[in-house]
Amino acid sequence: MEKLVSLAKRRGFIFQSxxxxxxxxxxxxxxxxxxxxKKNVKDRWWNAMVRFRDDIEGLDAAILMHxxxxxxxxxxxxxxxxxVDCKTCKGRFRADKLEDARCPQKPSKRPGEHDACQLTxxxxxxxxxxxxxxxxxxxxxxxxxxxxTAQGIYVNFLNVQQSTRQKIPFGIAQIGKxxxxxxxxxxxxxxxxxxxxxxxxxxxxxxxxxxxxxxxxAERMKWHVELGLDPARLEYHQHTAGExxxxxxxxxxxxxxxxxxxxxQEIEGVHNRGDFDLGRHQEYSTKKLEYFDQPNNKRFLxxxxxxxxxxxxxxxxxxxxxxxxxxxxxxEEGRVVLGLHPALAPIKAGIFPLVKKDGMPExxxxxxxxLRRRFPVFYDESGAIGRRYRRQDEVGTPFCVTVDGQSTxxxxxxxxxxxxxxxxxxxADALARVIQEKLDA
Length: 441
Ligand code: ATP
Fold this sequence. Notes:
single chain, alpha+beta, 7-stranded mixed beta sheet, globular
């Protein structure tokens, strides 16, 4: 993780928020390469869930919602973690995760196990960020920064259904920011206080819910594998009776093995939530949220199968999964490679003139300008060609194109593959097609 954090900063993937002021606790900013990587993750999710299906509609609901939403959803009373303080070291821990924590004064022990520890009794701590809507704090109403995006979908269920004339079963999907005042954030972008979720609620007829639950459980695992995450590092975790939320009929997490002390951790949850959410919003808003099944002339409150995945957590999983250090035959210096799936890589091709003369930079610039209209490319003429390759390997660029002496004579260039290191010669004017074919493969 330390190596990744350092690479992420050095190469412009991820920076600590407000770093020049000493940083903000567990909030991160995505730099030029990070924003492209995370966008590619979000685009793949949007394509798989919305664009490539005719039974899921997209939505972009606001972050600030009516405060009653969070009473109905159970977040005001129940979105709490048990918090304990240590009076000796002033450490703060989640009472239900003490076995994963270390005593700051004696890291070989857990909080409470060291003689000097003085833990308080657990207090319930609400994870929602509160703020005020209106000009004056005292007269304005309290609003919350949403701790999940799903509620925006529930309250718009009928708006979307009626405006699109979708029939059940169908889903609503959205990507957006969520905020949680986590007690123990950390592990880089794994657990942060501001993050992005990609959530989909699939509305089904009661009785068909377990079939759809199994469908989405399998689909979502397939999506993670198609991103290039190593199947050996992925597993399902079924929620035990103790872990299951009181309203949930079934829940599975997709876990990824982050290695080190983190090990297998949740990156996505797939939940069968029954009619809990629509039922509660119907009760609190006093507006009917039933679906009218016209052919069968019946009304019912749909059940919901939810898939909820963190864009930042998947981005971290991809970085961990992709990072490798390896020796290169015939070279003393090894290389660091981000073996990202080409479709996810922030830069698709590095474009290099072999030397800065004889018309090579001009031709390389022309190629870069042409390719840039289709996908992100990076022009680089500084340093030895080997160094330029290494710089691109380190950020996961799948292809490097070199313009050499022959190029200016016959219009061909070499294209090098990040993983196999093989180079082949192709006509410069066929590059866009050749690279696109490789990206689509
Ligand atoms: P955890 O137990 O890890 O806190 P959770 O069970 O509370 O997660 P959900 O409420 O199911 O998480 O949220 C769905 C997804 O949102 C998670 O699988 C994760 O990818 C992402 N997520 C949740 N909390 C955070 C966070 N604080 N930082 C980054 N991503 C998060």
